[in-house]
Design goal:
The complex is a heterotrimer of chains A (about 100), B (about 550) and C (about 160). Chain A has about 100 residues and is α+β, with helices and mostly antiparallel strands. Helix content of chain A is about 30%, strand content about 30%. Chain A has helices at about 40-50, 75-80, 85-90, 95-104, and strands at about 5-10, 15-20, 25, 55-65, 70. The longest helix of chain C is centred in the middle third of the chain and has 12 residues, at about 85-95. Chain C has an 8-stranded mixed beta sheet with strand order 2-1-8-7-6-5-4-3. The chains are: A alpha+beta (about 100), B alpha+beta (about 550), C alpha/beta (about 160). Chains in contact: A-B, B-C.
Chain lengths: ~100, ~550, ~160
């Protein structure tokens, strides 16, 4: 089932931003607010458009739940949520280390 | 190479200060994101999937070792220690923070560099032949003209808001190594029957959504009319190019709609009215630019270098293979042009670490008069290496990861950053390149596959030049799932042509096996061991390749 | 909206009272004052009480204005979006080619970071988009002290100026 959330990029460093239920921004999709319909998400998007001092170009994102995890529907958004797979790993960088710290 | 004077220096410093102010105004809210976007883009700053991306201009690909060291330092200080050479001979940083970008611009300004007009609907970095100045087939060195055009186009007040982006490429060689036919303006340095220098102007080529080979709109523009003619083309485009639909806004659409003859007439009318104005060059103007590009002081050396001959006969097979593949004839006896491959199994195509950049700077100082060129195939070139130094240089290149003997070959893949980084991409390209590199590394050891350009773009914008790859791969999106179109028969050379889609789109995991089937089909179909892929394809057409890919059991 | 102007002698400053009265297609001519009429009305407009101006946009062919130029003291060029660059070429053609030496005014989506380029192309007054900081905008003309091209502020390219 398609669910909805709001995403953008942070103004300061361009990192991925997801809107939380308390209207703060998080880099972790698992902490994002998720709504059942596009209509539920629309007011949050409208609010997010007023957040230009923190984020850029917010938009609605389609996701689903899979074994309790929030998973974006498109390849693009999955990569956006997880970071680039190619270069960083080979150079010894972890994917999105800030996320892994939180999880660990 | 060109050296900034006080004017040029002040300009890049003022640019850094201006951008610092723009960033402040964006952060404090005086500029909205919509207003800031075109400003940051004109400074090469994009918002990508996970971070900002900053594109640094490398005019006609030429760098000094000092500049290379500064780029290494910036990459280390403000990014994650690696960066990416682009098909426009530029460098991209993948992870700069917004507030650091003004500092990066200040650091660039200290070594006569900038990020001016590396994006946006303006005249972009001017590209050229990586062998400019040393190519044996050169009519004249294109770089003085590139620099003239660079200065003319930098902050040109009339052309800062064109209908769409605008790319120049200039070549001075008989062979086209700058892909001029797929640029908005491609310029070839020529001589007319009277022996005078001038330029053949190709206008309206390009890749992207509507790939087109540029028609020649004027066979001979006299040397001193270079800048005024460029201004006439740009003014015509700025006034008449479409602005209602960004997919139809490039000059290629205007030239196609008007027809090359009618378009050329309008340009000529405009040119007639400005050609004797202040943009008319004088001999003195041109000479002043030429002086910056005088050849280095070469040693008088024998062309048949005994040390080299010995090394080639020696036991080191790797050296002979590398020499045959990556080293090109120089016009100066005793010297060679060396291609440094940035395509290895260890990094994505065109990626380079800060440590590698430092190593290149050091090698350039010791082996090639302190200069290095970035190519549109995302490799590097040392243009002036003594043949006697080749064995020693090879050993060092090997150590630093630049000696893959694949220049112009199957694993010398052109590849954009794709969906791993790029906000415009539809599909990953780096992982496809990695898969192909792994697969073909062995195959190309076994067979001599010959010249084969494999180009991958993660979307229709074609930064990976898929239209002009002998084999091109285009990432597309099908309902959120990555797919890839395979196209064959493209070329960016003197015989430029556009590839044709072979058949239905493939999934990510189908791509490498399909390309392998194309290559194996070619190996069995080629008329002789010397017939390159492109000739075989042009001789036989797509059918046998189509069968090999889509009906492998029948073939 | 705030109107600012720049000229080589007095520099950049705010225009306190704008004498120009904008007329639409049908509005009657006032008894006194300087009027700006739309392009469509230009050919038909007879004697005016004061000075005459016309309002055009970037798509206007400068040739269509040539006959009227001697009568015109102001040409207002509308920029529908600040990314629409046609106004820049129009301005240069009016100045360079047709010798227009009246006032050229940019209106519409006019932002601080265009002013330097607009000025170089021959505009001398700028109706800044609503809500934008005037003091900030007045500084825009000083963004660069170096320019490379011949335009309305310099008649020679940098490569000749640097030898002078």
């Amino acid at each position: 089932m398609t669910l909805w959330t709001v995403t953008a990029n942070h103004l300061s460093d361009g990192s991925v931003a997801y809107l939380r239920a308390d209207r703060a921004w998080t880099q972790d999709l698992q902490h994002a607010w998720v709504g059942a319909t596009e209509a539920d998400a629309a007011p949050l998007l409208a609010w997010a458009r007023g957040q230009e001092h923190l984020i850029c170009d917010p938009y609605l994102l389609e996701v689903s739940r899979d074994a309790g995890r929030v998973v974006p529907l498109s390849a693009r958004e999955r990569i956006r949520a997880e970071g680039p797979e190619a270069t960083l790993a080979r150079l010894g960088y972890e994917r999105r280390p800030e996320l892994q710290r939180k999880v660990g | 190479m060109y050296q900034y004077d006080a004017f040029d220096q002040r300009l890049v410093e003022e640019r850094a200060a201006q951008f610092r102010d723009q960033v402040v105004r964006r952060i404090d809210g005086r500029l909205t994101e919509d207003e800031f976007k075109p400003l940051r883009l004109q400074n090469g700053l994009y918002m990508q999937l996970h971070a900002y991306m900053l594109r640094i201009a490398i005019p006609y690909g030429l760098l000094s070792s000092t500049q290379m060291r500064a780029l290494a330092e910036i990459t280390r200080e403000y990014d994650k220690g690696y960066a990416h050479w682009t098909t426009r001979q530029n460098l991209q940083l993948n992870w700069p923070r917004l507030e650091d970008v003004p500092k990066i611009l200040e650091a660039l300004a200290k070594v006569q560099m900038h990020a001016i007009q590396t994006s946006g609907n303006c005249i972009r970095n001017i590209t050229s032949d990586p062998y400019a100045g040393v190519a044996a087939d050169e009519v004249a060195d294109p770089r003085p003209y590139c620099e003239l055009l660079r200065q003319w186009s930098t902050f040109h007040p009339e052309f800062a808001f064109l209908p769409r982006k605008f790319k120049f490429a200039v070549t001075g060689g008989a062979e086209d190594r700058a892909a001029i036919a797929v640029h908005d303006i491609g310029i070839r340095v020529v001589r007319n029957d009277a022996g005078e220098l001038g330029f053949s102007f190709l206008v309206g080529g390009g890749q992207g959504r509507t790939p087109l080979i540029a028609p020649v709109i004027r066979e001979f523009v006299p040397e001193l009319d270079l800048v005024s003619y460029a201004e006439a083309v740009l003014r015509t485009y700025n006034r008449l190019g479409r602005r209602d639909n960004k997919y139809k806004a490039r000059i290629k659409i205007l030239v196609k709609q008007e027809g090359p003859e009618a378009f050329a007439r309008q340009v000529d009318e405009e040119h007639a009215r400005i050609k004797d104005g202040p943009l008319k060059l004088t001999r003195e103007d041109v000479d002043a630019f030429r002086r910056f590009f005088r050849p280095p002081i070469y040693e008088v050396l024998p062309d048949d270098e005994p040390a080299l001959a010995g090394a080639l006969l020696g036991k080191q097979r790797g050296f002979s293979r590398w020499f045959a593949q990556n080293v090109v004839e120089h016009r100066q006896p005793g010297y060679a042009i060396v291609n440094l491959s940035c395509k290895s199994k260890d990094l994505p195509p065109g990626d380079v670490t800060a440590d590698q950049m430092d190593a290149v700077a050091d090698l350039a100082d010791r082996y090639s008069f302190g200069g290095v060129v970035v190519t549109h195939r995302q490799n590097l070139v040392f243009t002036d290496v003594r043949k006697r130094d080749l064995p020693a240089l090879y050993a060092e290149l090997l150590e630093h990861g630049f000696a893959t003997p694949n220049f112009g070959k199957l694993t010398d893949i052109i590849c954009c950053p794709g969906l791993d980084y790029c906000a415009l991409a539809n599909a990953r390209s780096i992982s496809v390149a990695a898969e192909l590199t792994a697969r073909f590394d062995e195959l190309s050891q076994v067979y001599d596959v010959g010249d084969l350009h494999l180009n991958i773009s993660g979307c229709i914008n074609a930064c990976g030049h898929h239209h002009v790859g002998h084999i091109g791969i285009l990432g597309i999106d099908k309902n959120g799932v990555e797919h890839y179109q395979l196209m064959l028969g493209g070329s960016s050379g003197t015989d430029a042509s556009l590839g044709r889609v072979l058949g239905r789109a493939l999934t990510h995991d189908e791509v490498a096996p399909a390309v392998e089937r194309v290559v194996l089909a070619y190996l069995s179909l080629r008329a002789t061991d010397e017939e390159p892929f492109l000739e075989t394809y042009r001789r036989l057409g797509p059918m046998p390749f189509k069968e090999a890919v889509y009906e492998p059991h029948h073939a | 909206m705030s109107l600012i102007t720049r000229d080589p002698e007095r520099g950049a400053r705010l225009v306190e009272d704008d004498p120009w009265i904008e007329l639409d297609t049908d509005a009657p001519l006032p008894a006194a004052g300087d009027v700006v009429v739309p392009m469509a009305r230009l050919a038909g407009v007879g004697d005016v009480p004061g000075r005459l101006g016309v309002r055009v946009d970037g798509s206007t062919d400068p040739e269509a204005l040539v006959a009227a130029l001697p009568r015109l003291s102001l040409i207002v060029v509308e920029l529908p979006k600040f990314t629409d660059g046609r106004a820049y070429s129009l301005a240069r053609l009016l100045r360079d080619r047709h010798g227009y030496d009246g006032s050229l005014r940019a209106v519409g989506h006019v932002l601080r970071d265009q002013l330097f380029f607009l000025y170089r192309c021959g505009f001398d007054t700028f109706d800044l988009a609503a809500g934008k900081d005037v003091d900030d905008a007045l500084k825009a003309f000083e963004d660069f002290s170096i320019t490379y091209q011949p335009a309305e502020d310099h008649d020679q390219p940098i490569w000749r100026r640097r030898r002078a």
